[in-house]
Amino acid sequence: MIQPKTQLLVQDNSGARLVECITVCKTRGRNPGGFSDFAVVSVKKLRKKGRIKVKKKEICIALILKLVKPGFRKNGLGIKFSSNTCILLNREFQNHGTRIFGSVRKELRNSNSLKVLSISSNFI
């Protein structure tokens, strides 16, 4: 689960490598955020090469894609990843990057994140 001060890896080609969560949107107090929640994050590390679209210490909105804590589906299958990852969005909730590296969970089909589904490579 994601709460303030949690560090997340960035899974798109926006130029950031590591971000830190400031707050999770639509939660009260220290209630953690989960899969497909939005969080306000600060960029901590950048990539060395490529086109970098964000700056260090920039405040962005992130969509949480993978969690270390297992998430269970309706059929009882538990899915657990090795790291917490997200993608970066601007203030109008548009993607900074044009590609998503790695896999994305199928549950995003039910949410309003259709653009994320179209630029991702594969689903789990």
Q: What's the N-to-C terminus distance? A: 19 Å
- Helical coverage, percent range: under 10%
CATH homolog superfamily: Ribosomal protein L14/L23
Mean pLDDT: 89
Report the CATH C-level class. Answer: Mainly Beta
Largest sheet: spatial strand order: 1-2-3-4-7
Counting DSSP E segments of at least 2 residues, the number of strands comes to 9
Give a structural overview.
By secondary structure, the chain is mainly β. It has a single domain (7-123), classed as Beta Barrel (Ribosomal Protein L14). Helix content is 5%, strand content 39%. A five-stranded mixed β-barrel has the order 1-2-3-4-7. Strand 1 (7-10) and strand 2 form a beta hairpin.
Quick structural overview:
The protein has one helix at 114-119; strands at 7-10, 16-24, 38-46, 59-66, 71-72, 78-79, 85-89, 100-104, 120-123. With 124 residues, the protein is mostly beta strands.
